Amino acid sequence: MHVFLTGASGYIGSSVLRALVARGHDVTAIVRSDQKAQAVRDAGGRALVEDVTDTDVVERLAHEADAVVHTASAKAVDEAFIATVLGALAGTPKPFVHTGGIFTFGNSTDISEQSPASPPAMTAWRGANEAVVRASSVRTTIVAPGIVYGHGAGIPAMFVGDGEHEVRLVGDGSERWATVHTDDLGALYVLALERGEQDGYVLAATGDNPTVREIAEAAAHGSPVVAESVDDSRARLGTEYADALLMHQECSGAHARAAYGWQPTRPSLLEDLATGSYAR
After folding, report:
1. Cα–Cα dist 23/124, whole Å
2. What is the 3-state secondary structure (H, E, C) of the chain?
3. How far are the Cα atoms of 99, 118, 208, 214, 235 from residue 96, in angstroms, in the given order?
4. Distance between the two ends of the chain, CA-based, in angstroms?
5. How far apart are CA 279 and CA 189, in angstroms?
6. What is the spatial distance between Cα 201 and Cα 188, in angstroms, rounded to a whole number?
7. Spatial CA neighbour of 244 closest among 74, 114, 127, 102
8. In this structure, is the dihedral angle defined by the CA atoms of residues 160, 17, 48 and 142, taken in order, positive or negative?
9. For 8-27, how does the pLDDT look when each residue is reduced to its tens digit (9 = 90+)?
């Protein structure tokens, strides 16, 4: 397929780009600089230096492509982008894969695709946009990742220590995070695209749900690990961000395995932090 991809130079999008190319798909990506365009070309894609908020460009590329994958999801972008893509793909069999997030489901020890939404303030904006995607007649799938890690980046990098300065937990560190390696996530996007469901929804989480304390201790590399109060976490990180990270979330990812044939193969977060891409 010829795939129109957004966010191809980003953390998630670059993994999706690699996975699409590896599966033999042709990719056209919108990027915002020549440097990012070169990175896309180096990965095997075709890059256009354009703005994802330019609805004329988005509409043209959606018409020209066989499928659309949107990983550059953002509050300021999504409403217009979704409306433009759904309009361009209406009446065609072309699939559209959109990006959500596991924060949508709030605190839960058993998150599934049927769990009720209870998002924190930081991501509450997603709900209305996802409703539009799901109500469309277009073949749409929403991929909702857990905490994404890998290649020494992502949220877990906040805990990487230098052996000297303290590593601060978020709260007391007892909350659990549902996690997914960015390369396994990229593979799931491709499976979702190729499946091309009508109103598909899939949680991207491997079933590995470590506590924040376990994450910090694996990443500290000799630095002292220090708990803090909720108020101190909010003051340090900002209330909305801290409240999202303080949620307790566990997810098995069973639907992704059973329905999509997804088989995560990368190291767990704790392994990657201790001896993998985050190790110094």
Report:
1. 34
2. CEEEEECCCCHHHHHHHHHHHHCCCEEEEEECCHHHHHHHHHCCCEEEECCCCCHHHHHHHHHHCCEEEECCCCCCCHHHHHHHHHHHHCCCCCEEEEECCHHHHCCEEEECCCCCCCCCHHHCCHHHHHHHHHHCCCEEEEEEECEEEECCECHHHHHCCCCCCCEECCCCCCCECCEEEHHHHHHHHHHHHHHCCCCEEEEECCCCCCEHHHHHHHHCCCCCEECCCHHHHHHHHCHHHHHHHCCCEEECCHHHHHHHCCCCCCCCHHHHHHHCCCCC
3. 10, 25, 28, 37, 39
4. 40
5. 28
6. 12
7. 102
8. negative
9. 999 999 999 999 999 999 99
For the record, the structure tokens of 20 come out as 């699409």
Q: What are 280's two structure tokens?
A: 């110094």
Could you give the CA distance from residue 256 to residue 252 in angstroms, rounded to a whole number? 9
Residues 222-268 pLDDT 10s: 999 999 999 999 999 999 999 999 999 999 999 999 999 999 999 99
**Tokens 């988005």 sit on residue:** 58
Tokens of residue 87, six digits:
């309009």
Decide: 8 and 70 in contact? Cβ < 8 Å.
no
Question: Alpha-carbon distance 119 to 244, whole Å?
Answer: 8
Name the nearest CA neighbour of 15 among 182, 151, 212.
182
Tell the residue number behind the tokens 């999008």, with chain if given: 13
C-alpha R_g of the chain: 19
Predicted TM-score (pTM) of the model is 0.97
Count of CB atoms situated within 10 Å of the CB of 181? 26
